[in-house]
Each structure stands twice: as structure tokens, then as C-alpha cells.
Protein 1
Amino acid sequence: MKFTPTLKFNGGRLRPLEATDRDALFVVYQQPELPGQRPLEQPEQLDRMIELSVQMAATQRGMMWAIELGDDNSGYQLLGMASAYDWQPSLLKVALRIDGLPRLTMADRAAALTACINFMAEKYHLRSVAYAWIQGQSDAIPAMLESIGFQRSVVMRDGWRLGQDDYCDQTLYHHILPATTAEVRL
Amino acid sequence: MNWNLQAGPFVIRLPVIDQDGDALYGLLKDPDASAHIPKPPMYASVQSLDELRRASMKFKSREGACWLVECHSGDVDALAELLARVTLDSINWMLNSARLQWEVSPSVEVDELETIIGAIEAFCFNELGLHRLEVALLPGSTRHEAFLDQLGYQYEGCLPAQLEFDEQWRDLNLYARLATDAMVEAPTPL
């Protein structure tokens, strides 16, 4: 049973991770976006993550998608990954994150995030979507988040760890979706 | 590692599941003890026993801990009464951070809570090696905002729509204190 659907957006698509994505994802993680994160050394390190993506979606702990640009006629190229984590289905909360190569523009990221949010809001009635921006990440990310409805809520001092005793701030952005009334079926 | 602490007249200790259920119920049945955090009311001691069992499971899996606070002043009646429960939750060993929460008897004064929390903070920073302690409060919790101010916590912002409680979506105000904010002295182990 597939828990992670393929989602189309303008200029590309999000699709579930597959074992054959390992090498393309390895290229993505040669340019890690998060401060303090080191490039992966072996493509095999991603095998476990791809397996885990299925387990996490099945148990509603998280969801991962490959982000591909292209179309059905000319084909698609994997340029990044979207992740839903810290998912708390009973509290209707989730956090999202995008990792991508420089070719994945802020417009592409905004479109991919919007597709994720729309899917999760409709399927799981989510109320609160968070995105963490780490000090040192691209300054264009906050503007991209605000362009699709996120608002800055908290600056967590030393909320991100860079090394043994080295920390930097983490800024949380939240996108609050309209509350839905639970449907009761007898 | 000794998780039981002493700070002045206060004994700050891990709970004993089979023995502390009634005393914890005695503390938590007063809604004022936990009015600053979103929490359903406590109607029976079986609820406090259940909370102790869950806390024990979190402690075993290194996800959290909770301490019960008593005052050993020589008064026999006071010995049986819990003054506070302090919970360390959501420990993230990668980021060296955790969330702190307390439920206190309305009789506890600011300087007394400062002594109790100060000892627990020192344990968290010095013994556990944590770097960041967070506290999340319901907006408008004036008494506990004053506690946090006195304890040196800094307001970091408001987490919107964190949970639905009493048919209302609740925001939580986030405060934090870092190990580097000030030197924290190690507590006296029991």
C-alpha cells in the first residue's frame, strides 16, 4: 500500500522515494543546506533513509518525497527532497523541510511546499505547519516562506547545534490553516 | 548518576510509582497548580498513578524525567505534602535541548521556586550536558511569567495553534534559558 502519493506542481512533481533514487539523492546531499551538516561519504548511506521513508509514512511519523523538475513528455530530473517530520497527527501538526540543489529555485520550492501542504491539509486535516530556518541558510528562504503564507513565530536561541559546543539560532515559521470541524460517522 | 537533589530545605527526587500516586493527586487536583499549561483536570488518583507510570517509561527510554519536590522543614504534616512536580520532557540529545514544565502548589513563593528550578537547571546543564531549556506557557499566565523573569528566561516568541483544548486552539509562549546565559552552580546530591 502506498501512503506517499505523487503530487504535481507547476514545473515539476513530488513523488515517493525509490531505491533507484540513491545516486541522485547522493548528489543532492553533496551540497548539504543545513549549517553543520557534512556531505555524505557513501551513496549506501541513503539506502536506509529510502527504506525509512516508507515506514515513516505508514506509521504517520513523517513523509518524504523526491522533488523533480520537468514534465511527462520530456521527462523529470531529481533535484531535491521534501520532508515532513515531527508529525503529530493527533495535534494536527507537522514540520516541513526542503533540501535541494541550487537549480531548484525559490519559486520551485514554494510550489513544491504548497503541494505538500495542500495534500496534508486535505488528507490529514492539518492545522499547523512549521518550517525551521537555520541561521546561515539562504536568506531567500524566509521571503519564500512568507510568500506562501508562513509567518515568523519564534527565534530559538542556540536552537541548532553545529558541533560539539557550537550552536546557532533557529527561526520557526508557521503556516496556520483554517480549523476544520471533525466529521462524526455513526 | 544521582538524579535526586537537595536544595535548601527542598528534597527534589524521582517518584516512586507505587507510593507517590496519592500525594501527586493531592498536588494536581488543585487546578491552579497547572493552570499555566494546557492540561485536562484531575478527578481521581488513578490519573496521577497513570502519569507516574508514563513518566517512568519516558525516563527509561531517556526521553524525559520528572521530579517531585518536598520540603523537609521538620513539620511532619509538610513531609507528606508535595510542593511541586517538575517535568523534563522532549529531550533532544542531538541538539542538547529539552523542555521544562512545572506544576506547583499555590503556596510556593517565587524565591522558593527559584531555588527548586535553579537546582534542576544546574543538574540539566552540568550533569546531563544540556545546552538549552525551554518553557512553554499559555498566554496570560502572569504568575509564571513572573517566575520565568525572575529565573532569567528570555521570551522567544509565540507558537501558534499548538493544540486544541476546551474547544479552543491554544497558542503557547516560548521562553528559554541557555547554559551560557549565566554560570549555574552544581546542586547538592542527596
Protein 2
Amino acid sequence: MTSTQPAARIPKTGALSPDHLKYLKERALFCRLETVRLIQIAKVGHYTSVFSCAEIFAALYYDTMRLKPGVPDWEDRDRFTMGKGHAAVGLYPILADLGFFDPALLDGYTKLGNPLGDHPDMRKVPGVDFSSGSIGHAISGALGMVLAGRAQGRDFHAFALVGDGEMQEGQVWEAALSAAHHEAANLTVIVDRNGYQLDGNVDDVIGVEDLTAKWQAFGWDVHRVDGHDMTALATLLRQVRADTNRTRPCCIIADTVKGKGVSYMETEPGWHLGYLAPEDEARAIAEIKQGAGL
Amino acid sequence: MTAPLHKDSWQYRQLNALNPGLQTLSDGLTDLVEEGHPVLACTADLQYSNGLSKFAEAHPDRFLQFGISEQNMVSAAAGMAAAGSMPFVATFASFLALLCCEQIRTDVAYSALPVRLVGHHTGISLGFYGTSHHATEDIAIMRSIADLTVVAPADNAQLRAAIRASANHAQPIYFRIGRGRDPDVYDEDAPFEFGKAISHGNGEDLTIIATGSMVHPALEAAQSLRAEGRSVGFLDMHTIKPLDRDAILKAAGYSRAIMTVEEHTVLGGLGGAVAEVLADEGAGCRLIRHGIEDEYSLIAPPTHLYAHYRLDADGIAARAREALG
């Protein structure tokens, strides 16, 4: 590569500074607002699936992960896979913000010929490490990346963000067994425990708890955190990323609120998919800004 | 509580509740229940997408929610059939036919269990939800499985008729259906028989053979070609397996060319099946296979995709004109 290549962003350790904490909160706000904007272009989208993991996206991409802004294919970068691929609308603005592709592409979201669809495509979108759309594949994909990294002598980490409804998919548990067996310590799974899936409350559809006990029983280190508490979340992710003494993969169960930031979305599971007319968009934006903690 | 939302804002449960096409599956299953059949309806976290929420409300004791575990659902349905029930499992066609292919082959078809598999939102109808959600290989996969009937109804009336006819069908069935928005082709009482194509006229220049959601636009295309003075026949090939070979050979006798139209790859689907018949029988009739070429479908709003792949009425007619000269 050329000498103009940007420097790698090395993950930080220890406590977050107040300024950096504020910055991460701003990035989560940016993620939510851009999601509202892009869904206005498509006229349909998964607002609430992004709103539950906006802090997770922001913490990973602006703090935890080892990346080189502007160089999406850097071989030593940390990887990210997403089981809940329908939250990609919140990831694209972040990837563009990191210089992985031209932000102007965002304006053509879901249009014919544009690479940005409801689910992310690694062959079309620079910065997307693994395609998704069929629930349950993301942990296996991330595991494969970690195993390949080990074989190549690389120490990058892989983070897989999965839904709590996704825990119903059999492949999740095949991946959980094999990751522990292979001592894939560079693999971290984050379960976005927002409580809802398409058909209703996860615990009414097919219950998944006790998640902590299940992942522990499969041989993983398990942490549980408030997925909207940026201080707790980013601090935990720093610790997990920096801990080189582990031999077990790590599962973080992030307790979240589906639709976090827009009051009526937080209480109605039908908002898994929907559309806000411009008249309502302004009200939603005001609510989101008010709740950003800035 | 905040002020009510604008009339143009929506969330999907409200929107789907307004789509009458999505009620057909539930209504068809209710027909069977009323006839005394031991129906069980199974979904994998998509009851509002396939409309089974209506059946669940009417018959909660016959509704089984599997969450996001499609393979588990298909094998469990095989168990239900083995125990004497009449299971219908429904999920997106991309997941049913591709993710659950092995369960369908080994647990359902090889075991000769009369499970009814309903793959919905097929073809490219899920638009920009992603190529992962498009089912453009499912006909080819499903029709290669022995003893599995493969049927793609053209509209809601035909779907309901096919569900009614399935009560006396001993084999497992793969129903390939759209998203409940296909325009009507048939009346409620139109006849339906598995394996018997429905003729919409004979033609000397061309016979169009279409299946599923392509029947309506292909019929429109046939009308516009006829209006130009061309002699165009038409077959609704709702059953892809067992295929109505006689109807195809009869069309090959009438017409100089046959054009198959499907929302599917041109490899191995309806076009492939018709090609096999023509080659097997040495029928010297030109075949044009119209569908999606050997490539991954793009993403865009559905109507834009149908136009792009020339799978709307204008596109189908244009493709026929090109072929006929």
C-alpha cells in the first residue's frame, strides 16, 4: 500500500474520558438519526432493531475495534458480523463516516443499482465483513475468521452481534459448542437482548432464558450489561478486547430496549418494521435528541 | 400519550392486517378444518407475514409457533404427519427451500410423509430486503426431490383451491406463493387439479407457459401480442411437478415457439422442466426460457426489479417480440 495509508486505530484500554464518552454518545445519536433519514428514502425499514443496538454499534466502531479508517480491507482489522442483518441501515452511516465508502451512496439507499440494501452484502459494501440475511449464521462466520486469523498468525478479534430471537436458531448453538472447543478467545458475541422478535415477545414465542447459564454451560465467559449505558458497555468491551489471558470465547448479553428513544416504538412490537411519515419523523427526531443524554 | 400518528405512518402488523391476500392461507386451512381434517399450522416467527395470525386467532389449539428455527419446524412437521396430523409449515421460500432442503428431502419426502410446505414471498418479491431473502432457486431444488409435488398458484383463488385439493393428495407438497398481492386471475370456483395445466388459448406463433405470480403479467403480455396480430397461446403451469407433459407437447404441436416465464433462475425451474420434455420427446419446437439469468438478483423495490428483469407485462411482451422478430 502507499505511504498515505492512514494509521491504525489501536483499541484503548482503561477508563473512558468524559470527552470520549460524550463523543460515543454523539455517534449513537448520529446512528439513530441517520437511520430515520435513510428509512425515509426507502419508505420502509427496521427503526427499532437499530435503536436497540445503536450504542453497541457506536462503542464497537468508535472505540473497541482495531480499524484503519478509510481502509476497509486492512488484513489485521477486527471483524464484525451481524446476525440481525436487518439493522444494517444503522451500520451503513457508520461505515461511511469511517471513510470506507462514499457517504453519497447513503442517499440512494435500497434503490436499484445501489449496494445498500436492508441486509448487508460483503461483496457490494466496503466495510461489511460478512453478508447476512438468514438468521443464525453470524457466530459461525465470526468463528471462522478467528480460526483463520490464528492459522495466519494474526491476532485480530471478531465480534458477532446477534438478536435474542436468534438464540432460537440451531446453528447458534452449534457455533457456541465449536467456538468453546476451539478455545476461540478472540471471538466475542454480543446478544442484543431487546425482548422482541417479529411475532412478539421473545419469551412468548420461544423462550430463550436463562441466557447467562446457557452460554456458561457451553463453555463461554459471560457478562451481562445495560446495552444503553455507554460507560458500562464501552468499558466492558475495552476489558474484553484487551484481556489476552482468556482461553474461552466471550458472550456479552446486552439488555436493551427495542425502539429505544421513540416512546411509542418501545411499547409496540409491530414497529419491528414500519415507516414514519414526514409529519411524524420530526417528532421522533425530537424525542431521540432529547433522550441522547448529551 | 403522544398525539396519534399520521395516516401515512405504519407498522407492519397494521399494514399486513389490511392485506386481504395474506388471509388466503388462513382461510384455506380453515376450509380444511371445517371439513374435519386434522390440520396443524406451523410458523417460524412470520405469522404476520404469511397471515397465519388469522388462523392462530380462530384455531389457537391448531397453531404452533416455532420461533426462528425453520429446520426444527420442518422435521417436527414430519413427526406430526407420522403421528397422523396434517401439518402445514409456512415461512419465507428462501429459508424453507434452501435452509431446510435436507429436512424436506430426508424427513418429509423420502419418508413419504404428507407435510404441506408453504414457501411464501418467493422469487424477487422481497425486493430490497436482500438477495438472501430472494428465492430464485427453489423450484429447481424442490422439483429434484422425488415424490414431492411442486405447485405455484397464480393468485389467491387458485391457492385456496389448491389447498382444498391437497386434502386428498397423498404426497408431500411444496406450495410456492407470493406475498399475497398478486392480482386476481381466477374466480373463486375455477377448477383446479394437481398436474393439469390450465389453457388460456392456443397459438401458432408462440405459446407462453407461465407459473405462479408470473401468470397475471404473462397473460397481459399475451393479450398485447395478440392485439398486434400475433397468434399466441397460453398455459398456466401451476404444477411444476408432476409436470403436464401432454399439454406441453400439444403446445409444441400448435406453435413455432414456446416461451416459459418464471420468477426464478432459468436453470432447472419451469424452463428447465419444459426443455426436458421437449428434448425427451424430440419435439422440434424452439424454446425461450425467460426468467432470471444465472446470476444473483439485484435489490430494489419490487416493481423496479420486475421492470429491470423484464418480468412485468411490458417486459415479457418485449422479450417475446425480440424472440419472434
